[in-house]
Write the structure tokens for this entry.
Amino acid sequence: MAITSERLRQTFSEGGAQEIYREVKATGDFLGFARRYVFDKDYRVARSALWGLTKATDEELSELQVILNELMDELKRTLEAMEIAYYKPAIKSLRKRILSGKFK
């Protein structure tokens, strides 16, 4: 059975996540799978995609580092565009730490 948004939306079990992982592993395209589904606007699709990826090994996930870098860049662009005067000091501090690269 092909992996589709509809199928991911309906995955609610550990067994379903393992089945998705096995299918992605068979194709060897973890990066393509992640780009297609991990950032889906439907949280159920994204949740199931991430759940399936939790079954992957570090070696298999190493190619996803590209996505993590893209995600961090997007977060930084969003934080830079914030109207910071309207936020509480804790948010201001966290924003400053992330933008300075001190957030781990």
